[in-house]
């Protein structure tokens, strides 16, 4: 008996290449795109290890936990790292990037997370990209959480390495990711003696064994399920329209912020300024005396399908995250999350107004 998820025909090189081309259009890039068959940490680390080494001076922007991870990788590569850390409730500015270049003109690599789903902020990449171009540094961008939730204009922003994953706003699986690579980034890798070779982390292996050969022969058997799922994600975005998908995420974020404020009980947006808030997820600060992990556990016990999570690490007691992304980027998911949080707060002794929250959500227009 055949099974649609098990008895799959092999994925041809032409089909694989066609999916790369569709991802390139989503990224608004004419540059090479390499699809990697693993979670987005694979190309995120591979791109840094390919381009960074003892001669690199990197400006590493830290607006959340992933920025901290990139700094660790860069140091492990032997790079000189200048961390530009800003409070997690805000975003970095182009002016801060410009000041860092003025203080350290030797910077030749900039690493940045577009949207930090873990902390709920998003950074002004267009403005930052202009500053990076002025100084000729290589620009590395983690767009895993932002892709589909907000515009990602890889070429227009001057991004040399742009990494995405399918598991958030694209609404797909975690086991497939992609990276766009500029000619400058390929040249940096080729000149780096420490760049991974004959390794799962190696982008150069993909270039030499796949791209340079005209994408006619795959270097290994592709993971059909993940590739077909990635293709389905892009098809869905194309069908709905990328601008429409982004608008849906922005509306969900605005509704979540408004609803949380109206709910009361001491709940408040973690990111202070709405313009710094990521459309992919909204983070909320719980009231004094409440435990975010306990509130989320109560809400999920009543409805395990709610798109809620407690903050990670040191934020586990103070932050709740509402994951309104992908198919859940809409009012229904936001209302469910706020209803669940409101019930958990009320059970814990806090005064909330669930009807006010619903009215606030309904009053937001995209």
Question: What does this entry look like structurally?
Answer:
- With 366 residues, this protein is α/β, with parallel strands linked by helices.
- The protein folds into 2 domains: 228 residues, Type I PLP-dependent aspartate aminotransferase-like (Major domain) (Aspartate Aminotransferase, domain 2, 3-Layer(aba) Sandwich); 122 residues, Aspartate Aminotransferase, domain 1.
- Helices cover 42% and strands 15% of the residues.
- The strands form 3 sheets. Strands 1-9-8-7-4-2-3 form a 7-stranded mixed beta sheet, sandwiched between helices. A 4-stranded antiparallel beta sheet has the order 10-11-13-12, with helices on one face. Strands 5-6 form a two-stranded antiparallel ribbon.
- β2, α3 and β3 form a beta-alpha-beta unit.
- α1 runs parallel beside α8, α8 crosses α9 and α9 packs parallel to α11.
- It is globular and about 65 Å long.
- The mean pLDDT is 96.
